[in-house]
Structure formats: structure tokens, C-alpha cells
């Protein structure tokens, strides 16, 4: 877990969310997993569900081919 994941998990915990990290998803028939979610947070009172993938990537959206 990097420092951004740790800070994000602590923030959502502080806001009253139930927080899980490194949640494996998409079990494969031949074994293993298709992917992993860095942070999943759920607020039990508002039923708000959040998925967060913190990144230290500093490239622009244009470099990744994403239109703003």
C-alpha cells in the first residue's frame, strides 16, 4: 500500500465509511483473479459506495488519450 492509498483509506474511515483495501475481483476459471480494487468504501447510513484507485501518475489526460 502506498501513502496515497493509506491517506485515502484513513480519510474515508474518518468520514464514517467501512473501508476495505486490495479487494480481488473476477475469479478466473484457471485460478487467480482478473483484477484488484485498491479501495472500496461504503457508508452504512447513506448507502454510498465508492471505488478509489489512487495514483501518483503525473501525466496529462492528453498523454493517456483521454479527452477533457
Which key terms come to mind for this protein?
68 residues; extended; three-stranded antiparallel sheet; 3 strands; 1 helix; 18% helix; alpha+beta; 38% strand
Q: What is the average per-residue confidence, as pLDDT, rounded to a whole number?
A: 90
Beta-sheet strand percentage?
Answer: 35-45%
| Morphology | extended
Number of strands: 3
Q: What structural category arises from helix and sheet content?
A: alpha+beta
Report the sheet with the most strands, covering strand number, pairing sense and barrel closure: 3 strands, antiparallel
Low-pLDDT segments, ≥5 res: none
Order of helices and strands: HEEE
Give the helix tally. Answer: 1
Q: Percent range for helical residues?
A: 10-25%
User: Oligomeric state of the chains?
Assistant: single chain
Q: How are the strands ordered across the major sheet?
A: 1-2-3
- Domains, number: 1
Strand-helix topology:
Blueprint: H1 3-14, E1 18-27, E2 33-43, E3 48-52
Antiparallel strand pairs: 1-2, 2-3
Question: Could you describe the 3D structure shown?
Answer:
There is one protein chain. This protein is α+β, with helices and mostly antiparallel strands. Helices cover 18% and strands 38% of the residues. It has 1 helix and 3 strands. 7% of the residues are buried.
Can you give me a brief rundown of this structure?
The chain has 68 residues and is of the alpha+beta class. It is 18% helix and 38% strand. The chain has one helix at residues 3-14, and strands at 18-27, 33-43, 48-52.
Amino acid at each position: 500500500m502506498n501513502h496515497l492509498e493509506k491517506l485515502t483509506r484513513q480519510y474515508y474511515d474518518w468520514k464514517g465509511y467501512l473501508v476495505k483495501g486490495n479487494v480481488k475481483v473476477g475469479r478466473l476459471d484457471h485460478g487467480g483473479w482478473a483484477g484488484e480494487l485498491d479501495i472500496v468504501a461504503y457508508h452504512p447510513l447513506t448507502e454510498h459506495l465508492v471505488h478509489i484507485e489512487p495514483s501518483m501518475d503525473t501525466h496529462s489526460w492528453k498523454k493517456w488519450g483521454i479527452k477533457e
